[in-house]
Write a structure and sequence with these properties.
Number of helices of chain A: 10
Strand content of chain A: under 5%
Distance between the termini of chain A: 31 Å
Distance between the termini of chain B: 33 Å
Order of helices and strands of chain A: HHHHHHHHHH
Oligomer: heterodimer
Order of helices and strands of chain B: EEEHEEHEHHHEHEE
Shape of chain B: globular
Strand order of the largest sheet of chain B: 6-7-8-3-9
Number of helices of chain B: 6
Radius of gyration of chain B: 17 Å
Largest interface: A-B, 20 and 26 residues
Number of strands of chain B: 9
Helix content of chain A: over 70%
Chain lengths: 249, 225
């Protein structure tokens, strides 16, 4: 039944997010904190990772497009690999290890310390206060970080192209226009889906695993580990499903 | 002259909690009516726990039999949203140090007021500050709960419970860790809350010393459960 529970949590989050009454000051405050923790504090690692991935992918794309004698594929290869696949996958993977486990641990500790009961007894719905802003903050952060990751990866690729790629055929391809020409709406939609859907599932899994522990201290690391494993599984499964759906369209 | 009967704030009607463990006494057929402005003290014999009664009063624990009504409504007949909303009308001093540990104490104290936005922020902060100073604190502590002394945390719990217009105050072993010098101020604050229409449910373990007159001047009734 964990899948049904997960779907119920996701549904409840989306419904709650649409209700204006949800967005009281306290909930907005938790949302802001979550975006700060998940999005802003993760910026340095994401930018460095983006740059490094860009260099690696562009170097490979340059090399292979020459080897197969199709230098015109260069832009499409870069777009397909970085924007459509790697950026959403790597950003979500980094967020699982950085924020997903933190969310599960924090919520599990709140169960142990009776913080959740304190919220309930004061008339604050724990789901609205704890889960909704965390899930939405995680999603928004994932979306923004994917955009920045992509920009850094393309920048890294551009610099790499200038400095490393020696093939005249590829060097004479204007990098920016080659990439921009490959950026079709379907590519952007695919990137959006591969970022937001797994992020939604990951954040919901981490909240669920954190909140449903038995109130004993040894359950906290178990909840954190379970959250990470299930989040990573969900990420790969959802990414694969979206790829399969793309083939059908 | 007949004193007008104020509306019932909290009613226990034959409320029973079954004992599940050998060292658990449960709660057998407890009945009480607490009206606006009244203060009822309940002294619980060990191993009965004040938290069970407080949780029942707040609708956080459903009785095995009997009915608990708050402001005339059975908790069990309320939707989750309605029950949550009603709970913000209850101030509670917990037996344990009950805080949201990833917030500072001042943020904790102001949390409900800011969540429901019943008062402008400046006024809310001012009320909290006045209460804190009345209880001998130098304003609301802007530190994590675990960095404060038990006495400061307990007094901050009092501030949190009394802040805003509460229909019901639930006090669990509320004088534990409190310096004797603050008792008159707490008593006066309770009297003010009662005069404003709050009902007070004072719960204490049998071994928890609760000073009677003149510290708590008018107790409406004392029950021994």
């Amino acid at each position: 039944m964990p899948l049904l529970q997960l779907l119920a949590v996701i549904g409840a989050v989306l419904v709650a997010a649409l209700r204006p009454a949800t967005w009281r000051w306290t909930v907005r405050n938790v949302l802001a904190r979550q975006i700060y923790f998940t999005g802003i504090e993760a910026l340095p690692i994401m930018l460095v990772a983006g740059l490094a991935v860009g260099v690696a992918i562009v170097a490979q794309a340059g090399l292979w497009s020459v080897k197969v004698d199709r230098p015109d594929w260069f832009g499409a290869l870069v777009t397909l690999v970085i924007i459509q696949n790697l950026a959403p996958l790597l950003v979500n993977l980094l967020l699982i290890s950085r924020s997903g486990s933190a969310i599960a641990t924090e919520l599990a500790n709140m169960i142990i310390m009776d913080d959740v009961k304190v919220l309930e007894s004061q008339g604050i719905d724990p789901f609205t206060y704890l889960v909704v802003p965390r899930v939405l903050g995680f999603m928004l952060s994932a979306l923004c970080l994917t955009c920045l990751f992509t920009v850094m990866a393309l920048l890294g690729g551009y610099l790499c192209g200038l400095l490393v790629i020696t093939s005249e055929a590829v060097r004479h391809q204007p990098f920016v226009s080659a990439v921009l020409l490959s950026l079709q709406p379907a590519v952007l939609l695919s990137c959006l889906a591969k970022t937001l859907l797994p992020a939604l599932a990951i954040a919901a899994i981490c909240c669920l695993e954190g909140l449903r522990i038995a109130p004993v201290i040894t359950a906290v690391p178990q909840a954190s580990a379970r959250a990470m494993v299930r989040s990573i599984s969900a990420l790969f499964i959802l990414s694969a499903l979206i790829v399969l759906l793309e083939q059908q369209w | 002259m007949v004193t007008p009967i104020t509306p019932a704030v909290l009613e226990f009607d034959q409320v029973t909690i079954r004992a599940n463990l050998p060292d658990d006494a449960g709660l057998p057929e407890a009945t009480l009516t607490l009206r606006a402005g009244e203060l009822v003290r309940i002294s619980l014999a060990p191993p009965r726990d004040v938290t069970i009664v407080a949780d029942l009063a707040q609708g956080l624990l459903a009785p095995d039999s009997g009915t608990v009504r708050f402001l005339g409504q059975d908790w069990r007949h309320l939707t989750s949203g309605a029950a949550t909303w009603r709970r913000h009308l209850i101030g509670r001093v917990f037996k344990q140090q009950a805080w949201i540990n990833n917030l500072d104490v001042d943020e904790n104290v102001l949390l409900v007021g800011r969540h429901y936005g019943t008062l402008p922020l400046a006024e809310l902060c001012q009320q909290a500050d006045i209460l804190a100073r009345r209880f001998g604190l130098e304003g609301l502590p802007a530190q994590r709960p675990n960095r404060l002394s038990p006495a400061t945390r307990r007094l901050a719990q009092w501030v949190r419970a009394l802040l805003g217009d509460k229909s019901l105050l639930i006090l669990e072993n509320a004088l534990r860790d409190v310096p004797l010098s603050v008792l008159p101020a707490l008593s006066a604050a309770l009297a003010d809350a009662r005069a404003a229409g709050s009902a007070v449910l004072w719960l204490s373990d049998r071994d928890d010393a609760v000073p009677s007159d003149p510290v708590i001047p008018i107790i409406t009734a004392v029950y021994y459960w």
